[in-house]
Amino acid sequence: MSLDLNNYKKAKQKEKKDFQFNLDKFSVSKTFSDKQKEVFYRELGMLLKSGVDFKKALEILSQQMNKKKEKDLILELKDKIVHGKSIYESMMESKQFSPYEYYSVQIGEETRKLEEVLTELQKYFNRKIQMRRQIISVLTYPTIVMLVTILVLYFMLNKVVPMFSSVFRQFGSELPKSTQYIIKISNHSGTIFLAFFLTIIGLVVMHFVLKEKDSYRKFISTLILRIPYFGNLIRKIYISRFCQSMKLLITSKTTLLTSLSLTSKMIGFYPIEKSIETIKADITKGASLHESLRKHSIYENKLVSMVEVAEQINQLDTMFERLTEQYNEEINHQTKMIGVVLEPMIIIVIGVIVGVIMVSMYAPMFDLSKIISH
Fold it and tell me: Which stretch of DSSP H or E encloses residue 255?
């Protein structure tokens, strides 16, 4: 079995050109959501296992779709396949599927294990949906609290502090340093909040402009991985995907070098992509996989040790499957813990901010008799 990676490079170049030429018509049109993809792969896998041929299965699925766009997409895939294109080529040209999906399907086609691949894709999207739901449920409360805090802070600096400031000016006494600082911030609060929102907008725009550049991707990934707690969680998410991809590819009897090359394209995470380039070179020179993995800090010692054992007993596919399950369990646990960690931190931050403002405003009031005497 051999997979032509040049096709992927050409596709990437074409996508970049399309992005450059259609930037003025920037729009995000995603026909298939993750939930719809999960249903699509589950139903398609079941139909194929039941003995239905691929074209007929797509026709049945198109009839089950309620939205016209979804139905048209599936019928478009079927028409391309009827006209001689492979399944993975049809998926790639539709631009509704990620490299992980259509290259997985390509492996399924070439190894005659399409049903197994579709099952793995269904499980992948099921885990992705569950993880997103967990993150949303955990972050909803902290996000609402932070938004309310920003609004309250804006109200206090624009309404409450000026009221105190006007009272203090009538007495003409020197105010505590903290009170002076709060009043200065209040006087420039409009500019501060405007600069804050413009900075956020600027960072978002900069991200979309620079996200394809290696230097920017390296900087962002390094920054993300250094964030306490969250950096470790994100690293485990991508390592889990790495293990899942390797398991799928090795199970399909793909060579180790080809598996690494495809995994690099599927993952899309800069540290893993760059490490795989070096790992492939080391393996070509005769090094083992675990020795090559050990040279890169992105991979945990646990992963390296388990891969070393798997290489000795020639069970890499089984070991990567177990590692995927272990990492998914750890990710689920850490995701649930986000709320436990964030909620008290947010309460402390809010308490400190509001407390400093109120103490700074009321401190001169406690010494009001002295101010009046002057």
Answer: none
pTM, to two decimals: 0.70
Nearest to 118 by CA among 129, 127, 132, 107: 107
Q: What single-letter DSSP state applies at residue 65?
A: -
Calculate the dihedral angle through the C-alpha atoms of 199, 203, 209, 215, rounding to the nearest 10 degrees. Answer: 130
321 C-beta neighbours (distance < 10 Å), count: 18
278 vs 256: CA distance, rounded Å: 14
Cα gap 246→320, rounded to integer Å: 7
Cβ atoms of 71 and 58 closer than 8 Å: no
Q: DSSP code of 367?
A: T
Question: Vertex 262, ends 271 and 217: CA angle to 5°?
Answer: 25
**What whole-number distance in Å separates Cα of residue 307 and Cα of residue 309?**
5
Q: Could you give the CA distance from residue 46 to residue 119 in angstroms, rounded to a whole number? A: 9
Per residue in 132-145, pLDDT tens?
A: 887 788 778 778 88
CA gap 193, 112 in Å, rounded: 58
∠ CA 320-272-249, rounded to 5°: 35
Instruction: Give me the count of residues in the chain.
Output: 374
Question: How many DSSP H helices and E strands does the chain contain?
Answer: 18, 0
Q: Are 118 and 43 in contact (CB under 8 A)?
A: no
Q: What is the pLDDT of residues 41-60, one digit of tens each?
A: 888 888 888 888 888 888 88
**CB within 8 A of 96, min separation 6: which ones?**
30, 31, 32, 73
